[in-house]
User: Which sequence fits this backbone?
DNA sequence: GCGACAG
DNA sequence: ATCTTGTCGC
């Protein structure tokens, strides 16, 4: 995967600035269709790398409404701060293939807790005009005081702004990070993450999407699915 | 210059 | 993310 030139990077940064300018940090979501999306990768023998995205749509009681997936050839390397250019296209396509349009979508990755306020969750949300929340297992940027009791959360601050929360979601697990993508306030991002937590480290929509995409990946590798 | 760095 | 078996703990 060719690393982008300094000039190309500047162009991508301006694209992120454009996305960031369209982010809404106010609540504009409902919970009729609660979805989750996640990506996995496949390295083929011929050297090509594929991105597999899996999306799941659940109703308020977490019953499955619909699943979808999409596969595209990778066209960008992994670079901190530029993840959306690697995983965004496949994720957007998978979400478009869901039977029901999500009214709130959980994305594996950052939201506004990003150097240019344009993490994957924000990019997907602005692109598809869907309220989104970003959930990540590691901090890309920002500082915080580690929460020490299950259920506790500490503000994640970046450049003097509260961009998300670090939440201790489960015993014997490292805390997770939750932040608005767009169409969700910082407080609601935390509330949503807490309310959709069940018996796993990640909120159920994220967990379900992760299981789904890995299932799709294994079926592709076994030849059951083709594209 | 050095370290950090979503997935 | 991915490479990978067993293993410790609830």
Assistant:
């Amino acid at each position: 995967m060719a690393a982008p030139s300094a000039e190309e990077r500047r162009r991508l940064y301006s694209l992120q600035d454009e996305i960031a300018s369209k982010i809404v940090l106010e609540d504009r979501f409902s919970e009729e269709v609660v979805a989750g999306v996640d990506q996995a990768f496949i390295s083929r023998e011929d050297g090509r790398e594929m991105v597999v995205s899996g999306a799941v749509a659940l109703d308020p009681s977490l019953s499955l409404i619909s699943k979808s997936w999409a596969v595209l050839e990778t066209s960008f390397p992994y670079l901190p701060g530029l993840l959306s250019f690697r995983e965004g296209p496949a994720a957007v396509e998978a979400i478009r293939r869901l039977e029901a349009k999500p009214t709130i979508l959980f994305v594996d990755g950052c939201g506004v807790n990003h150097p240019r306020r344009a993490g994957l969750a924000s990019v997907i949300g602005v692109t598809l005009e869907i309220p989104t929340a970003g959930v990540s297992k590691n901090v890309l940027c920002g500082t915080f005081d580690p929460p020490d009791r299950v259920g506790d959360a500490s503000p994640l601050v970046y450049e003097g702004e509260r961009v998300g929360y670090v939440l201790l979601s489960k015993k014997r697990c490292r805390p997770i990070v939750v932040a608005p993508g767009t169409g969700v306030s910082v407080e609601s991002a935390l509330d949503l993450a807490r309310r959709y937590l069940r018996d796993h480290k990640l909120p159920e929509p994220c967990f379900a999407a992760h299981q789904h995409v890995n299932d799709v990946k294994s079926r592709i590798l076994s030849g059951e699915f083709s594209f």
